[in-house]
Amino acid sequence: MPESRDDLPDGGGLPAADALRRRLAELEAENARLARALEAAGGPAEAALRESEARLRLAQEAGGICSWEWDVETGVLHWSDSCHALHGTDPSVPPSQEAWMSGIHPLDRGAMAAAIREAIEGRLDTWDTEFRFTRFDDGATRWLVGRGRVVRDAATGMAVRLRGIGLDITERKAAEERQALLMLEVDHRARNVLAVVQSALRLTPRGDAEQYARAVEGRIAALARAHAMLADARWQGSELGALLTGELSAFLATQRVELAGPPVMLPARTAQPLAMAAHELATNAVKHGALSSAEGSVTVTWALEQADSDQPVLALRWAEAGGPPVTPPQRRGFGSRVLEGVLRQAGGRVMLDWAPEGLVCRLQVPLGSPADSTAGTKR
After folding, report:
1. What whole-number distance in Å separates Cα of residue 360 and Cα of residue 365?
2. For residue 370, what are the contacts with CB-CB under 8 A and spacing of at least 6?
């Protein structure tokens, strides 16, 4: 009978796998006890042994753990049924060390071969390795972890058997990668937010302290709303209609602002500049434009256009009507400078038309790949 798996090394960071490994050790110890009972008592113990082995197989399958043993001298490799399932091999075909090594990713194969060599030559008694493996049945590449121990001849110290377990950790690896990318994205977004805040502070007039405080507070609030939407979406982006609704909700309730356009998912790098742009346009409309009078209204429309680079470009039109007569400003105001500044960070541009019946502002902002702008969005 195989020896107890109490000699397997600790799992290192996988509590669930460690618990299963301990359970496997307990079940195999029970197998050994039942085997001894079988020799002493004969037939009745055989049924109990089969039942214990069935529980062992169930525990392995439930935990996604496979067990194996390699005879160093003969080269014979024994796999549990769960090992065949893990590697996508045919249980009717005896496994071999050579075939198993051929499935290991070329970038990981050298490290695995070195670990086995060091174990056989006596420089390593246990190992815990992570490697990529291409399954033989469906060709899928999975991340596996292998843990094992060397069994040596008591007299010579030579390696007799290598014994261990295998476990699929693909989902854990994917989660780790997503977390690392998310951390990089959050860091990048935080830097951009600080740059936008710095730009807003620099461009806001400082002559009136109270007005300065209100202006800065409003701009930072717009950034905070966009930030909250991005955080809720795990920094995958923001839906344009929802973003504009958040900025213009007070006027949408009175039907003084109309929004119309297709579903568009804004990349994270674009959402905050557009939130700032909407805030600046709304602030200007309330102070000087269409929303400063009871009869005024604003219509915001948008569409996706194709650029020469085959990347979609958001074309947004802000049109005011019904407000006081508009005259072109003699000089560029700080609101215009903020608009240009924040849109420049997103790679976009602003065109202002001071028509007598109301300001018309056109924004053009590149959105990156088509998948970034339209995938899976609904209004």
Report:
1. 17
2. 311, 312
Q: Give, in degrees to the nearest 5, the angle at Cα 145 between 140 and 146.
A: 120
Edge-first strand listing for the sheet containing 297-306 = 257-260, 297-306, 312-321, 358-366, 349-355
pTM score above 0.70: no
The token duo for 214 is 């209100």
What is the DSSP secondary-structure string of 264-329? -EEPHHHHHHHHHHHHHHHHHHHHTSGGGSTT-EEEEEEEEEE-TTS-EEEEEEEEEESSS-----
Q: Which segments of the chain does DSSP mark as H helices, in order?
A: 15-41, 43-63, 81-87, 97-103, 106-121, 170-203, 209-232, 240-252, 268-287, 334-345, 370-374
Alpha-carbon span 142 to 196, nearest angstrom: 42
Each residue's pLDDT tens digit, 12-34: 444 555 666 666 666 666 666 65
Residue type, 31: N
245-260 pLDDT per residue, tens: 887 887 777 778 899 9
Burial 48-77 (b: 16+ CB within 10 A, else e): bbeebeeebeebbeebbbbbbbbebeeeeb
Could you read off the pLDDT of 93-107 as tens digits, one per residue?
A: 999 989 999 999 999
Q: Is the dihedral of CA 46, 49, 51, 53 positive or negative?
A: negative
What pLDDT, on a 0 to 100 scale, did the predictor assign at position 119?
84
Q: Which two tokens stand for residue 132?
A: 């990529």
Q: Are 129 and 105 in contact (CB under 8 A)?
A: no
